[in-house]
Amino acid sequence: MGVGEMKHLLTTGMVDNIMDEGEIKHLLTTGMLDNIMVDEKLNYHPATGMVDNIIDEEEMKHLLTFGMVDNIMGEGDMKHLSTTSMVDNIVGEGELENLSTNGIVDSIIDLGALKHFSAAGIVDNIMDEGEIIHLFISYMVHNTMDEVELKHLSAIGMVDNIIQEGEMKHLLTNDMVDHIMDKGEMKHLSTTSMVDNFVCEGELKHLSTTGMVDNVMVEGELKLF
Asked: Which residue ranges make up each domain of the chain?
């Protein structure tokens, strides 16, 4: 436990618990990190092993890991999260600007501003009450619930359910779109495969598809189809 200022921590073995109330600037480990509790500022955290729990109340700027990230709870300012393995749960009430992963993302609950989200694996659930500007995934998107503003959703795989009450401007997918319910304003929907059900109460400007369209219900204004 450090009440002051820890600047550099380097280890190749297991780190069980770190509790620091001051300022950790650099944390580098190639083994397992069990628990990290930082009350102030963790600037850099690269890890090639497993990161179990990270609780950060202030400002975590960079988190880079090549192993599994189980739970991340950031109430402060986490700007960049990059991982090549599984991300289980992310709860961010502050500002998570960049999230990039090549593995599975199970659940993302973001109450702040998640601007960029890129994933090459499965994304199961995304619940965002803030602002997701860019969501890019090359595999399956199961459920997306966005109450504010989802500007860009690009997927190469299947999009199962999208419930969006704010403003979704661009949805691009090369696979099947099962259900889309949009109460706001969806401007562009482009797909090269099947569109099953589409319910739009707002204004749909562009719908482009080279596959089958089963049901489209638009209560607002459909300009180009």
From this structure: 1-135, 140-220
Q: In the structure encoding, which two tokens stand for residue 74, read together?
A: 């950031």
In the predicted model, what is the mean pLDDT of the chain? 56
Residue 193 makes CB contacts below 8 A (sequence gap 6+) with 173, 174, 175, 176, 177, 209, 210, 211
Asked if residue 133 has pLDDT above 50, the reply is no
Measured distance between the N- and C-terminal CA atoms of the chain, rounded to whole angstroms: 62
* Strand-pair partners of 136: 118, 154
Which residues have C-beta within 8 Å of that of residue 215, sequence separation ≥ 6?
A: 196, 197, 198
Per-residue pLDDT at 210 exceeds 60: yes
In sequence order, what are the residues at sequence separation of 6 or more whose Cβ sits closer than 8 angstroms to the Cβ of residue 129? 110, 111, 147, 148
CB atoms closer than 10 angstroms to residue 60: 29
